[in-house]
Amino acid sequence: MKGEEIMETTKIRQIMEQYGLDLDAEAFGNGHINDTYRVCGQPLVLQRINTSVFQNPDGLMENIEKVTSFLRRKIAAEGGDPERETLRIVHTKDGKPYYRTDENHVFRMYKLVEGTMSIEDDKTPEGLYKAGKGFGHFLKLLNDFPVEELHETIPDFHHTPKRVEALKQAIAEDRAGRAKLAASEIAFALEQAKWADRVVKGLEDGNIPSRVTHNDTKINNILFDEVTGEAVCVIDLDTVMPGSMLYDFGDALRMGASTAAEDETDLDQVCFSTEAFLSFARGYLEEMREELTETELELLPFSVKLLTYECGIRFLTDYLNGDTYFKIHRENHNLDRARNQFKLVAEISRKEAVLQEMVKTL
Ligand code: ADP
Ligand code: GN1
Ligand code: MG
For the chain, how far is it from start to end, CA to CA, in angstroms? Predict the structure, then answer.
């Protein structure tokens, strides 16, 4: 975590006071966007919302209130535990969904989902099957959510062609003077851009249905029961917006089916596991098969390549812009991440036909 992002204890205390609490909190979790803290001695999570990424915290929190209330009703109706299977916002003493400090930092609090763990680099076929079921079930529950009620928290979040344009702009501006250090990654990214508009076009011409999707289905954005290993709760709901299910499917396997961490620099270790793909797809389709169109089913393997590519060019763009978006923990972190993602893109391209056959068996 960058130095300025670690809150001083006195400031944390001041924020906790807004929740009627006299407790400390310590850094928690591995997100790239928000700053997350675990409250000491209480099952609570405090989070500083990254307001340069999420510029409308009112709209954002309204979305999360609506989505989690909707999910709670559905979970209760199917006999689940609504307090554990979706997030619960904790309000301030004044009944507000977040607190803005004098320095304009925005904090919110959630109940900690207790007795859970997340998958980081310890991926197993069994875990991926359960993650697939978890994300698939999440989407199924949101199938009839009134989409017109949602704010678009990050406009064009998965508009891959616009991401390509942003990369081109970053190359042209070369603000941090790094373009020469990333020449081969830039060449790869631009060469691959030819298929970047496939899903956006499908959504525009109606070939791919627009659904209420999560849009950030990174494998550590789902919590698993510590004892049974079952998927319990999908978290990080900041980007729940209209989108394609292909975004969720592809993004989950971007990290879920990689044999290494997202920032592994030894690229020999970075491979795309077809077994992991099959496990996740099996779980996902057990939940969602009936809902999906032929086009969606056909594009499942492609979606993994697309989302991995998109994430790679986002890391590369951020590297060129001087690391202003994703948290970094070392020099060249974003470039390492981009290289890692591009290695996966090349691997997925080679294996696309095999993955297609796998989908057919399901
Ligand atoms: P970011 O947008 O930065 O990724 P997340 O909301 O995903 O933020 O939170 C970061 C990490 O904190 C998660 O990956 C998870 O490990 C942990 N976490 C967040 N909220 C909760 C919660 N309510 N219960 C348990 N763990 C949580
Ligand atoms: C961010 O917030 P987190 O760490 O779960 C990012 C995702 C990227 C991911 C790459 C809002 O996810 O889009 O795929 O990093 N979230 C946002 O690891 O930009
Ligand atoms: Mg997260």
Answer: 41
